[in-house]
Amino acid sequence: MSATALAEAPHETRYETIRIADPSPRETKISAQDVHVYYGAKEALHHVSIDIPAKSVTAFIGPSGCGKSTFLRCFNRMNDTIDGCRVVGRLDMDGEDLNDHRQDVVLLRARVGMVFQKPNPFPKSIYDNIAYGPRIHGVARSKSDLDAIVEHSLTRAGLWQEVKDRLQEPGTGLSGGQQQRLCIARAIAVSPEVILMDEPCSALDPIATARVEELIRELRENYTIIIVTHSMSQAQRVSDRTAYFHLGYLVEEGPTESIFNDPQEKRTKDYITGVFG
Amino acid sequence: MAITSPDSAISGGFGTSNRDLIARRLAARHRSERMFRAVGLGAILLGISLVGILFGSILSKGIPAFTQATFHLDVAFDPEVLRIPERPQKAADQSVAEFNQELLSWQRRLRTANWNRLIQEAIAAKIPAAADNARDAIGLVASNERVKLWEMVEDNPAIMGTTQPVSLIASANVDVWLKGNIDRTLEQRYQQLSALQQQWSDALYEEGVISMDFSTVLFTNVDSRSSPATAGLLGAIVGSVMMMAIVMVVAVPIGVMAAIYLEEFAPKNRLTDFIEVNINNLAAVPSIVFGLLGAAVFINFLGLPLSAPLVGGLVLSLMTLPTVIIASRASLRAVPPSIRQAALGVGASPTQAMFHHTLPLAVPGMLTGAIIGVAQALGETAPLLLIGMNAFVASVPSTPLDQSSALPVQIYLWQGNELRNFFEARTSAAIIVLLAVMISLNALAIVLRHRFERRW
Amino acid sequence: MNTFIVVAIILIALGFAYNWGARASRSVANRTGAKMHSRPIYYGVYVMLWCAVPAALVLVLYLVFQPMIVDAVIGGYLPADVAADPGATRTAMRNIEAIASGYGIIGDVEPYQQDAADALSAFTLTARLALIALAAAAAIGGLVFAQRQIHPSFRARNRVELAIKVLLLTCSAIAILTTVGIVLSVLSEAIRFFTFVHPFDFFFGTTWNPRFSSTGTGGQGEYGLLPLLWGTMMITIIAMVVAVPIGLMAAIYLSEYAGPKFRFVAKPLLEVLAGIPTIVYGFFALVTVGPFLSRLGDVVGLDINATSALTAGIVMGIMIIPFVSSLSDDIISQVPQAMRNGSFGLGATQSETIRKVILPAALPGIVGAFLLAVSRAVGETMIVVLAAGNSPVLTANPFEAVSTVTVTIVNQLTGDTDFASPQSLVAFALGLTLFVITLCLNVVAIYIVKKYREQYE
Q: Which of A91, A128, B243, C267 has the most CB atoms at less than 10 Å from its CB?
């Protein structure tokens, strides 16, 4: 079956997502229920439901334009910043609906951090980049508090040894991989519960990518991580569970090994085996 | 709710979780967000209301000046008063020169006749007391309006002995009095009109002999010192039009060609970098410096005449040039390189690609830039003052080398006129004319831009 | 009318030349059967250029040398005593030219003047005829020369394109020539001024009192720049205090908060302020803002002059608002969206993002815009001419009348003084000061903004 034939599949048909349970079930951190996303009149994401387990890495994969990044941005309401974008459905985190309009996005985004596709350090010093979040949220009581947060965050991100002597230098002067780890440290500094990563390695070279992947695996111990990636090998390397998106539908989700080794859906299989993508 | 993150111990520090710390400050942060947003909106509304105040102030002052107190009198062309001989007819045995001589002396005779008496009598027909107070009566009518009477006779000598309806513009002081632009309770010694004149003006206005008519003289007359009520903008408008024409003929082609060269042919080197910086800088040089250039080079060095639209136009052209170049380059750059490459690909020379393909697509943008530049030049005053255009000129320039005024300069001269009560309104009216022209030009530019705007 | 005839003749001649060239190329092509290198139009234009340029050169040369030749012709007729006195020579020359042109002069014509005038008119007639003949000869010569070159392998298009390029280059050189002209004219007149007044007294003098009576021998007056510079600075500071916060906040709101519809309406409305001529602002300051401030002063017990640094500064600030706001708007829009996302993603509110990320990131560009606005304010003329009160004294009180560099330039050059007097020439020294100040501001600002743009490209 070719990609064009797939593209012609009628959108009205309600696909049922194929779900494969974890052999050792974990506590659910976020539960998305029947989420739809619209750009203006166009529906970009159709009735997606998925449970994200706590303290694990969930990878969203799929061909470009499949809606995986759009879905990721629902978790910290970043879609709010896009004109004409509308999200319908429930996203429960610890029993609260993230998508409720009464939800304070400021607080939400402190709880759900995000790392972007391209490293985007602020044009400030390394120190100020990390201290930015704690400062705006007022979580540091003193200068020494803040110093501790900065050191801790950089350590967690595995950057402390590399930058501890040049904390006052601009963050934009670091290498691409270092910048991305700086952005991860920046997200950690406000001690979020969930970290969203939108193709965090797509702008990095292989060595920097390996370094970031290693970091993701370490962070899994303490954070719930959702990562969007177009690299299947990366998903295999870092994630516990994988969800495959296709043309705005969540096709299949389950433990990473089972998705890659024994895909149930033909489309998933075609994608994974490289028929298209 | 328990926070699962282990970092809260470090960042929170004192047992409270991060979440509570953040939540506590949320209200204050949202309040400051609303404040900031309100301040931003306030800044825009303030800016827009300043536009409103400026226009409101000028319109409220200027619009009344488009109507002007005008007498509608029945003037009896009394031969007894005027004592003008018959208009000479060319006799058969007369040479042309002799006849012209005779006609000229007749015309001279016409000009010196006692026209004031006719006006006085016409007013006296309405207000009998005017018959005994010549000065007061004649002072009601703008002094230049006598011209209208003798021109009537000159055009048609047959009206001698008849009574004709004539509209005559009232003097500036009457206009000011009737429009309430002067404090009527002011002591008499500070008033410009005598007590009698005040009384008569009011009475005549009541009767409808004086009415507020559209002030055509504002557009058909030139500036006047002796008769401010009939001072008009014609000379200034013509001067400004001439200068605009010169700017269009000089600055626009040169600017466009310079832009083509810099954008398309110039090698990228130090020299072109220098030209680039130079043009950007030139666009930001104060306009008065261009006036100094004009005074030193055009007037003093080349010996061109003072107050001439030619010199003004050249100075404004130099001033507008950078604007035109920058706008033209921007619109050339907006044409996608693929079009040029396509032309080159089928064997066109770079010059042909430029003139046959890129340039036509960039023309609307260039035109917009040119119009905006011309509009800018139209409103410029300072450089014109330095090349002598602040001189009082009571004639319409017939060539760009004649003495002339210009619209903004006329505004400058009028605002300084000592007859403040009258000229404040007159100046505002002149400003309205200037703004109307500028806004039309800018609107034209906007229409052009929308009409031809192309998204690649 | 005469001009029209001349223009018509020239156009017809050029059309003829073009036609000649185009046809010649066709006939060459037919005769030889070879393919011409360029299309006929290029041969036509090539011939036309060869026809027009030499003739134009002749005309330009004549115009350049005519005054010298005229002087030489008349010079011989002048009596020794007249020739010795430059003033009398000038008068005599004017008279002679007036007589020769047929206007005549008032008063008696001296015999030598009549003779000279006769000679001049005879010479002018001959010169005109010679000129026409010469120009025609040059045109025909060019025509023949160009037409002879027409040959299948002759690259007419390349020649024509070269001519076009030279023309384009000349046009862009005019921009440079303007700057050179400004520098040379202002500098040379300023140097002339400094022969009257020592530069030190000018740049560091604290009194401005250029006595207009240039007849008196008791000194030339005092030309201290500092009071004017101070007035300029004070007004500029007030203008910036008004324009920068309003302009910057407006730009922030427009680029960060406003929806497309609001932006579509508000932005042009605000930009209307930028299109209003400065004379209109001056008038507004004089009749509306000044009296308002003065009355306001009465209410709060301050003595505010209707024409003062404050009036001029506030109105100038209003004028600069759209300038600041549209420049800042551009600059803020250049900050990449990634910066905003990064900040929002951390939970910052929009205002926190703007204040702590976007503005710091845009700071260099905004500083550049600020400097450009300062340069604008320093060079602004009509508002201060009308509303600053023209009182060149050193005062720290913004409620009092002051004077500025630009006002003084206007005052000194629009008086009735001789152009060569220090009273007039000082305008050029002031202009030089103004030019140098604004040049520095502009170059620094343009450099900063350019670097800023490159950073985000």
A: B243
